[in-house]
Amino acid sequence: MGSGLSSPSRARSWAVLFAAIIGVAITARAGFWQLDRAAQKVALQSSLEARGVMLALPQAQLARTLAEADAQHYRHVTLRGRWLPERTVFLENRQMAGRTGFYVVTPLLLSQAGQGEAVLDAVLVQRGFAPRDQLDRTRLPAVPTPAGEVDVIGLIAPPPSRLYEFSAVASGAIRQNLDPAAFAAETGLVLRPVSVLQADTPNDANASASDGLLRQWPLPAVDVQKHYGYAFQWFAMASTMTGLYVWFQLIRPRLRRRT
């Protein structure tokens, strides 16, 4: 009499082996993907740190295309131009230093050497944070804006981050989000594909107090440890499935045959 497995048992064993291989492959691949994401973020962090110590970007080199913009994010820049306070937008439900309020965004009409004011070339400047009036949520904070040409220093950044909103239609001074393309069409401005996080001037420790805006801008969160944690979980699942298969399909049946 043969001692081999019956056909149903053999088929079941092959099915279990196939499922185990697929499960281990998927979880191990997910673990390696998380490690790859961690490596990408480590490289991003190194790139951001390197950009942070580079000389300030001249205004003439400020990005005009999205490809150029990606390479300039979080570099220092000094701009000269004229504020357009009538185009100021207050982005609501923003937080800074544990408070909720507005990000104040004003276009800066860039000075065009030799071109006069015919070219409405501008950049969105995230000027700072202003708390919201808790008694009257429609009341706008008073933000002093100097007239004439000004120098603005800051960090080049992507356009203001988007929050979830029920309606994509935005108008008025208070908005949930600011879409640069729609805002350019609305105002007739030629907007650069970046924004600038305004910084306090280094020779004026009370620069924020002069306009009442707070400028404790958070840098992008790289959060590499999160990916290492996820990778550990995926590899642990792959190891567990491998161990369970070896125990229940290989070791345990042999022990039963011996007894």
Fold and architecture overview:
It is built from 5 helices and 7 strands. It is of the alpha+beta class and 259 residues long. It folds into 2 domains: 7-46 and 224-258; 56-211. A 5-stranded mixed barrel has the order 1-3-4-7-5. It is elongated, with a radius of gyration of 29 Å. Residues 205-209 have low confidence and may be disordered.
Q: How many helices? A: 5
The value of Rg in angstroms is 29 Å
Unreliable residue runs: 205-209
Strand order of the largest sheet: 1-3-4-7-5
Shape: elongated
N to C succession of SSEs = HHEEEEEEHEHH
- Most strands sheet: 5 strands, mixed, barrel
* Oligomer kind: single chain
What's the number of structural domains?
2
Strand tally is 7
* Beta strand %: 15-25%
Give the CA-CA distance, first to last residue. 20 Å
Arithmetic mean of pLDDT? 86
Give me the secondary-structure category: alpha+beta
Helix-residue proportion: 25-40%
